[in-house]
Amino acid sequence: MYITKEFNKICLLCRLCPIANFACRLSTTVMHRNKQFSGPNMKDYINFIRPLVHHKHDTNYKSFHFSLLSYNILAQELLEKNAFLYDWSDVRVLNWDYRRQLLLKEIKQFNADIICFQEVQESHLNWFFKKLSDLGYNGVYKKRTRFHCDGCAIYYRNDKFTLKEKVTVEYNQPGINVLDRDNVGIVLRLSPRKNEAENIIVSTTHILYNKKRHDIKLAQVHLLLAEIERVAYKGHKKVGDDNIPEYHPIILTGDFNLEPNTAVYDFLINGALFYSNLQKPTLWSQNNQSGRCNMGNELIPKSLGITEYSQHSDILELRKINNHKRQINDGLYSKLHHSERKNEQLLSTPSSEFKFGSGNVYHNLKFSSVYNNNNSCSTYHDQWTIVDYIFYTSTNLKLKAYMKLPNVAECQPILAMPNRVSPSDHLPLFAKFIYQIK
């Protein structure tokens, strides 16, 4: 343990040693480009490298505008359990009383209509709900299962949205090795108060960290997408002889612990992944020297009732029986285990028309990423990288603006996080959207 701790210190030192010289070289350039930056003012520097980037759209139509903040805020108990990771932070900024004041200040500055948090400590919920309630927010929280201290939360402005449906998702499914971790997700169906016939689906999650177990990450994402698909489903439209599913606008946020060059990220963006011949458990491409076995054809067992298209088979049966209409309380037909409810497995034999265990996974949700630059950074995992994302369905949502993430070079002068400017070890993500009202 001592050796591990000292090794991590050395790694962090290697990261921090170039900062002073780099900052000195950069400061003159930065000051010339931005007169508001002066000296070692880290807050000004962060603002400089994280401008709000605007997109122009034709707005000659009825539309609903809203903003969203997604943020892994670093649970205090996790910080203290992994204190060696933060040895290079000023001990004063690691104190929760200090961090929460910075966090509250950031929340007020962003003034977002929807806030998606990861790593919210359960024992801090009263503080969060009190402070955010005073700012006009309602919220939904889901703690990680079993003995964990933290979970995910979504807060929304009470004067702007009505909560129509809430779903919490547990990835720990008894008896399934690839789904034996305690990560969770939340899916909400919100309606704008001035347009209550419309719906916006907002989901957040915190996917497994383990860098080697991308098979688990894929299974967790596959399960979450099935729940999002269920909640977002509007009905079908007829195109020739085919029934094409239609969905409400969807925003999916969180700490996915995935980099853009990974198979699971490709699945989210492209809607398809052929995993059967990939290495298990890394999902890397096979080569003759790897010596690893293939993933094979079955990611999760058929007993969970989730098809290769990330849909619940029993719910597809229910839709078919009811002329492809969305059914109230269709969640009762899910075979997923949930620690807070009794499962009702009303239909038990999936139709042969649904595909399971084919070595492929798909989804129909057509996501784009607000942050699609491979050089963007949201945290430091042995090196500066991006693992936090805001995905959205660009077929029915337009990206109005977003707060840029810094690239690797721009991150070098940033002090180890948390610091006196950043209360977490992740940077917050912020975006504004336009929803065209029909």
TrEMBL record:
Domain of life: Eukaryota
UniProt-listed InterPro entries: CCR4/nocturin_mRNA_transcr (IPR050410), Endo/exonu/phosph_ase_sf (IPR036691), Endo/exonuclease/phosphatase (IPR005135)
Molecular function in Gene Ontology: 3'-5'-RNA exonuclease activity
Domain Endonuclease/exonuclease/phosphatase: start-end pairs: 69-426
PANTHER family: CARBON CATABOLITE REPRESSOR PROTEIN 4, PROTEIN ANGEL
The protein's name in its UniProt record: Endonuclease/exonuclease/phosphatase domain-containing protein
